[in-house]
């Protein structure tokens, strides 16, 4: 990968809810969004609790009568029965886009493939659907995978019964890029060694990002929405959101989204430093794209297309 534009999708049960208190969003420093709904809903800590947890608990009681988070998978499954990624690929994939990434499992632990490790999974194998749709566009495919899950520690038991089996299941799809996250929970020597072994195996045929603790990576990620002040002598990637949230948040207003010109400014900065440009989309529970994200994205694509046309003339 070199100087490429990619698209990553955050999609899961949190898309059914599509909520993160917008007032809390606008004032918080760490811009985790609606995809952290589970964490806010079950937050128990009185010491430095996660931003927006009170509003989330209130919202969940009013809207869902305090149903268990994973019970909402029924709504997600009902709305994705006939979904095909080709529906949104037609709107997003063009000659500027060279790779796409799907969040196979985020920190809530809900899986988008037919895993044998948990009942908290999509009824339809959406990972398989994602790969099949991408084949039509001759585009490279990657998978996002969270090492940990909210409310669970990375114990030896969790690693052996969840992490290793899930990675082995996902290997059959043969992604060209493994986009890992949640490495801050890899705290023990055992967990670190297991991750190192997993990464060494995966790098035999695929690229791996840097959220893997002390293992050798192929692509450096400096942080969410972060870029270096210098031009790195190695491959790196800038990942960002068009709005505030990674997962769909219906509480966002137009003022909360970057416009096409702002995305172009960021793109130019990343290209100057020889990075890859990864754009996030948070689809609604039925897979429909956020209208504001789509508009800003289309404006950005039109701007760089006009630039390319001007340069060619």
Written account of the structure:
- By secondary structure, this protein is of the alpha/beta class.
- It has a single domain (5-312), classed as Glycosidases (TIM Barrel).
- 37% of the residues lie in helices and 13% in strands.
- Strands 5-4-3-2-1-8-7-6 form an eight-stranded parallel sheet.
- Strand 2, helix 7 (126-135) and strand 3 form a beta-alpha-beta unit.
- Helix 8 (156-171) runs parallel beside helix 9 (189-202) and helix 10 (260-272) packs across helix 11.
- The relative contact order is 0.17.
Give a short overview:
The protein has 313 residues and is of the alpha/beta class. 37% of the residues lie in helices and 13% in strands.
What's the level 1 CATH class? Alpha Beta
Uncertain residue ranges: none
At CATH level 2, the architecture is Alpha-Beta Barrel
Order of helices and strands: EHHHHHHEHEHEHEEEHEH
- Tell me the name of the CATH homologous superfamily: Glycosidases
Radius of gyration over all CA atoms, rounded: 19 Å
CATH topology: TIM Barrel
How much helical structure, as a percent, in the residues?
25-40%
Q: How many separate structural domains? A: 1
Distance between the termini: 27 Å
As laid out across the biggest beta sheet, the strand order is 5-4-3-2-1-8-7-6
The profile of the biggest β sheet is:
8 strands, parallel
The average pLDDT score comes to: 94
Judged by helices, strands and strand pairing, the structural class is: alpha/beta
How many β strands by DSSP?
8
- The backbone outline, from C-alpha atoms, is globular
How many helices?
A: 11
Report the portion of residues in β strands. 5-15%
């Amino acid at each position: 990968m070199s100087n490429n534009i990619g698209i990553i999708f955050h999609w899961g049960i949190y898309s059914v809810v599509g909520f993160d208190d917008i007032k809390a969003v606008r004032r918080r420093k760490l811009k985790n969004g609606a995809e952290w709904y589970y964490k806010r809903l079950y937050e128990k800590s009185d010491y430095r609790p996660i931003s927006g947890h009170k509003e989330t608990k209130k919202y969940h009681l009013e809207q869902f009568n305090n149903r268990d988070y994973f019970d909402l998978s029924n709504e997600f499954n009902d709305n994705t029965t006939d979904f095909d990624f080709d529906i949104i690929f037609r709107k997003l994939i063009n000659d500027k886009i060279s790779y796409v990434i799907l969040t196979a499992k985020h920190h809530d632990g809900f899986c988008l493939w037919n895993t044998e490790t948990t009942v908290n999974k999509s009824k339809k194998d959406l990972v398989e659907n994602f790969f099949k749709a991408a084949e039509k566009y001759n585009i490279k495919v990657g998978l996002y995978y969270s090492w940990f899950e909210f409310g669970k520690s990375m114990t030896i038991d969790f690693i052996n019964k969840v992490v290793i089996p899930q990675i082995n299941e996902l290997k059959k799809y043969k992604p060209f890029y493994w986009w890992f996250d949640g490495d801050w929970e890899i705290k023990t020597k055992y967990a670190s060694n297991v991750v190192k072994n997993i990464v060494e195996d995966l790098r035999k045929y695929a690229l791996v990002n840097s959220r893997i603790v002390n293992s050798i990576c192929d692509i450096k990620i400096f942080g969410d929405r972060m870029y270096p002040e210098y031009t790195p002598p190695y491959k790196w990637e800038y990942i960002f959101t068009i709005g505030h949230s990674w997962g769909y948040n219906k509480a966002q207003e137009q003022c909360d989204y970057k416009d096409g010109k702002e995305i172009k400014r960021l793109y130019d900065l990343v290209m100057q430093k020889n990075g890859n440009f990864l754009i996030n989309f948070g689809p609604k529970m039925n897979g429909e794209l956020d209208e504001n994200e789509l508009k800003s994205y289309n404006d950005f694509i039109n701007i760089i297309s006009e630039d390319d046309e001007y340069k060619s003339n």
